[in-house]
Amino acid sequence: MTRPLKQIHLAAHFPGVNNTTVWSDPASGSHIDFASFVHFAQTAERGKFDFMFLAEGLRLREQNGQIYDLDVVGRPDTFTVLAALAAVTDRLGLTGTINSTFNEPYEVARQFASLDHLSEGRAAWNVVTSWDAFTGENFRRGGFLAESERYTRAESFLAAAHTLFDSWQEHAIVADKDGGRFLADPRAGEFTYTDQHFDISGRFNVPRSPQGRPVIFQAGDSDRGRDFAAAAADAIFSRHSTLEAGRQFYADVKDRLPAFGRHRDDLLILPAATFVLGDTDAEAAEIAHEVRLAQVSPQTAIKFLEQLWNRDLSDHDPDGPLPSVDPVVGENTIARGRASVRMYRDPVATANEWRARAEAENLTTRELIIEVTGRQNFIGSASTVAEQINDLVQADASDGFILVPHVTPAGLDPFVDTVVPLLQERGVFRADYTGSTLREHLGLAENGSR
Predict the structure, then answer these.
(1) Does residue 129 contact residue 99 with C-beta atoms inside 8 Å?
(2) CATH top-level class for 9-276+377-442?
(3) What confidence tens digit (pLDDT) does each residue in 149-174 have?
(4) Whole-model pTM?
(5) Which of this chain's residues are annotated to bind FMN (predicted)?
């Protein structure tokens, strides 16, 4: 029996603290001006996307003791931006990254419940953790939480927030005959939550929101992070987006769900992906090459190199071979506030892998960095890109993609104008919204179960 075609989920990521944006492109605009956020969000909504996504950095990154200014430096507060966007969009989901290490459950739950009311049910929360004392200094908590405890606190934080969201669940506000309003049950909003991280009790002051709870996203890739997602998340923001890696990640996480009393369809896998479009595949490939050169300038290549080597390499030639010296093992003191350095669990082994690849493919330092820092790219004509996306989703390498354009804010426009209609013609992407809340867009029940 042939399986019905899966419906593709699409979302858009307003580029955050990264080197995605090609600043030299004449179309590149501000990452702070509200008009940029409006253009981006309204384009995603015109394309009938599920949601737009905002990442967030809690401290300006540094490298070699200086502010890292080769890409996005800083950006306005996530809640403020999303609340403003709720007023200029009607159906688009609004997803924000909010930290569970340096915040408190009551405050975050109140903000998300408020956003869900303001947007009429379109709020989502990407739950993240922080491990570094450098970021913690902004909160006077530098080094207070060991890395091994970050998911324990995140689990407690989310459970406490759910207690707050649900504190109005069985209670209603009703109107009397004189037009007044009163609580049908005076216990509405009462809550108590106690564990090793939180001991809170009181009364939650935001009535139950349209979705009940915001949609929960998770982006961790460790074994503990995957378990956290399988237990509590509605969707995963994944970095595994090629066919083989995507299918392995997809199967691994889906197989974890039964242990937490959940079904395979209770969790969506949504990798991030960039794209480059052209009139032909050959033209798109040429544009993609120029984009990568712009994203990884000689200066950027050296900065990426320093993040692995953990030493000052400012005198290194980006057009020469990789350094002959090995990385400095231990705490990374060169790059601060950048989570990606934690991916290098064995820096020396990674450096040797890079050397072997550079030698085998005759790559300079910059060319090698371009290769190893590349994200999943959809490159080709609109027809080719539509086929690539559909093939990966139907092969269970993902349930859809979170697209990250290299030009802000107008970089999403060509995809919406050319690729989306082709997916709609294939019958794998909605022609229009059929629901009003983000949970409805994603096929999720009110409290997170299908």
Answers:
(1) yes
(2) alpha beta
(3) 888 999 999 999 999 999 987 666 66
(4) 0.92
(5) 97, 151, 222
